[in-house]
Amino acid sequence: MCLTSEQLSELKPLVVAVVGPTNEGKTSLLRTLTNDPDFGHVNAFTGTTVRAEIQKVFYRGIAEILQLIDTPGFQTSSEIMELVLESPEVEARRGEYCLADILNAIPLDDEDFRHDLRAWREIERCDVVVFVANVAEDPNKSLLKNTLILLQHIGKPTLVAYNNLGDAERLTQGSPVRENFRREWDETLSRNSFFLVQQYDAHRRSFQDEIALFEKLVALTRNSLTQRVLRLEMQERRAHERRRLNDSRTIVAEMLLDVAAFQKEETGVELSDWKERQKALEGTLRETVLKREHEAQAALLETWGFKFGALDREALVVDDDSKERDDLFDDDVKKSGAVGAGVGATLGGILDVLSAGLTFGTGLTIGALLGGLVGGGGAMAYNSKYDRKYKRLSTRVQKRVVEALAARGIELVHKLQTRGKAMEDATPATLSAHPQRAELPALSSLLESFAKNPAYSKLNSGKFALGLDHFDWRRIPGASLISGEDYKTRDEAIAALAEELRKAIPDVD
Ligand SMILES: Nc1nc2c(ncn2[C@@H]2O[C@H](COP(=O)(O)OP(=O)(O)OP(=O)(O)O)[C@@H](O)[C@H]2O)c(=O)[nH]1
Ligand SMILES: [Mg+2]
Fold first, then answer.
1. What residues does CATH 3.40.50.300 cover in the chain?
2. What does the pLDDT look like over 21-70, one tens digit per residue?
3. What ligand is nearest to the CA atom of residue 24?
4. From 18, 28, 38, mutation site for ligand 1 pocket: most ligand atoms within 8 A of C-beta
5. 173 ligand 1 Cβ < 6 A
6. Which residues does 127 contact at the CB level (< 8 Å), separation at least 6?
7. Is the C-alpha dihedral spanning 146, 149, 154, 158 positive or negative?
8. What class has domain 10-222?
9. Tens of pLDDT along 420-463?
10. For ligand 1, is residue 377 a contact (CB within 6 Å)?
11. Using a 6 Å cutoff on CB, does residue 235 contact ligand 1?
């Protein structure tokens, strides 16, 4: 449906004031909801946001449909409540009061009330209030209790957004498990007649929650044109999410194809030194695969709106033969078989999220995989052959390495899809050293057959890089892959793999 220019000019943005006690995650929620890691200021102290800041949402970049207002957090609700109840007008009405009474009661030139006053002014001018409720906090604290009581009197539709639902990532870093007061919140809210509640965690993004939040905002919108456009915006968001998932599948598929069909060759290798040459060749193969994985990771980060930080690859790639290996890796790591995987406290790579920018350490795990993780010996990662007669050496990665790359690619997509944009400083996200095997037999067998055709990999150079049109794959020994099957171009092969990846990276409904 298209909007006429007349409708566009009539469109009134829904003005939403995001309010709540200080330090409960209002700015964080807005960052994630609007996919903007640079919006406002976030930190773990009270009084971070000092003035109202507007984040506008445009439908298709043209029609302003939403004004999301970040407000300074409440700090003096209890004092305001007292002042309201003490005011002669309210006393005369036997304690009945409304929004105007609240605004009248707040002293204008008192520093202590400065932040709260600004928030209340936004409540006055908005259409809808979103109250951010930190479910990690007890709702019976007096600040919260009094805030809720005041909000009951404003006469505006109010949606409660539960945040801070518990963060799996934090738990893996060893922080204590937080108490969750969700049940208490449910009780308190229904006792106070707040019936519209939606969970929305700023750190753990959920697309379903985002859409549900929008749906509730739509329900609270009185203007029917605004309502219609908000629905269109929801459709746009869905389409955008699908595009990102689609692109992600293609990025992973392309990397897998490149690595699976990649092979390194060397000719003129004498019998006397083929072993040494083979090691060197495997080394370059590993380097190239690592680079290729990083390339895919960078593309995935971009797709999901994360900035790509420094690529500290050198420090992380582990040389199998290094004498220092024993010093580098602790025993646990070795016992677990993850030789080469244990730099730092966590197994696996670390993504440092710097206000949503990432510094990479993920190459490490795959370095480990190629270096020995997959079976306790570097050799297990490679499939190398020496042909005495033709003095030819060739090497490629084993199928299991490709499968591990698939699992890691899928895991990264899930991480990025569910990662908020709200972190105020470096928060590492870990990719596991032992990625859960993706049970995708069809993907594996497709990759296995594509692997026989070196022309599929853009990593192959020289004679393989002639381009598919000119390249006769039948001349490659063992390239019987497509016999009986239709010949596929590289793009078609990628599309077929991406389709299989749909099982692990599904679309949103
Ligand atoms: N784990 C987790 N932490 C959160 C979440 N939302 C916010 N935080 C953290 O809570 C702290 C406060 O977040 P802010 O977004 O600055 O809170 P605010 O309500 O805007 O605070 P003021 O502007 O001071 O009123 C920060 O340390 C955030 O990282 C969440 O959903 N999950
Ligand atoms: Mg704030």
1. 10-222
2. 999 999 999 999 998 888 898 888 899 999 999 999 998 888 899 999 99
3. 1
4. 28
5. no
6. 14, 15, 16, 156, 157, 220, 221, 222
7. positive
8. alpha beta
9. 887 655 444 555 555 566 789 999 999 999 998 888 999 997 55
10. no
11. no
